[in-house]
Amino acid sequence: MMLVWTAAVHAGMLAVAVLAALAAALALVDAVRQFTLHTARNTIERRFTDSTVGLFTGWALVGAMSSVSAALTAMGVRIPGFPAILWAMIGLVVCIWITAFYAMTERGRMTIALGLGWGMFWLVFPRLLSETPSVWVAIGAAMGAFVVILATESRRHRINHAERRAAMGRPVDDII
What we know:
This protein has 176 residues and is mainly alpha-helical. The chain has helices spanning 2-11, 14-37, 43-75, 84-103, 110-129, 135-167. The radius of gyration is 18 Å and the shape is globular.
């Protein structure tokens, strides 16, 4: 799906690019959901499945959001009274919320957060250094990546703390 997305972007077929990016993002989000329902049996399985899919999921969500934004801009979709920056920020918030939600499953899926961070990194610099800069989108992307990584690490810390309490025979119900 991402090969179709890449080919469509380079060919200028934005509608195909949007459909491919959304299909890839939805398939990867479903894969993460399945990994949550059926956890990895060992560390090697987790590294080969969760890590690869997690990184790709974070990046694909950013790609889907960017594709939708580019297609709407190319079609000239404008709503009177709402600046384009508002729609870009709404797209960022939706992408960040979905990523944070799935990154905080299980023990805290840091790979999803890092995948989003990588994708947001590639949003920040073009928004700062291009011919049409958008400082607010760059700041929103950078802060969003930071918040998702911080929230994921917080989840990991809470789980590790609960495990330590359980190992000492203390209650953990109020922590998780």
